[in-house]
Amino acid sequence: MAYQLDPKYVALREEAFHWNSEAPQGALRGVIMETGYEHGVVTLAAMSDSSISVYFSHGSGMIGAGSHDRPAAAARNLAIGVARNMELFKKTSDTKVPKPGETKFFVLVDKDVLGASAKEEDLGQNKHKLSPVFHAAHAVLGEVRRLHEQAQMRQQKPRGGA
Fold it and tell me: For residues 68 and 100, what is the distance between their CA atoms, to the nearest angstrom?
């Protein structure tokens, strides 16, 4: 199934894959997790400068979560999980979006992109070696979602009055 990818999504995704940092040689520059669903793709990008973004293939997204304590802590735990499982990631040039039901991980180290993939269901049910990384990434997504919901609630509160 071919997805309809919004040009804004494509541009943000490309920026994540080509993100440049001042990270020391051999250090993790970023982690990207993407999951394919029937109607689109969700991309989580957690970078070594503490930036955290979530992009949706239909063109929307959330950026700036890394400046908040809870998402930043969750992203650090994700980086630790990736570091503990580096042997599961292999150098790749295939950064195509995942198919429905598939989750892809991309780890940026120096100028390299390392990748791994599995069925989302297997990852979620702890049936894959990358399940701990998957759950750590979902903890980041949960914190970003919580932040987004709090911001929406603040916007809905009536101004002034008691």
Answer: 31
**What Å distances lie between residue 140 and 24, 32, 74, 89, 94, CA to CA?**
24, 12, 5, 20, 24
Sequence-distant (≥ 6) Cβ neighbours of residue 22 within 8 angstroms: none
Model confidence, pTM: 0.90
Domain boundaries, the chain: 7-156
pLDDT digits (tens, 9 = 90+) for 133-156: 999 999 999 999 988 888 778 887
Q: Which two tokens stand for residue 24?
A: 């020391």
**Are the beta carbons of 25 and 78 closer than 8 angstroms?**
no
Sheet with 28-37: strands ordered across: 61-63, 52-56, 40-47, 28-37, 102-109, 112-119, 90-91
Look up residue 23 and give its amino acid.
A
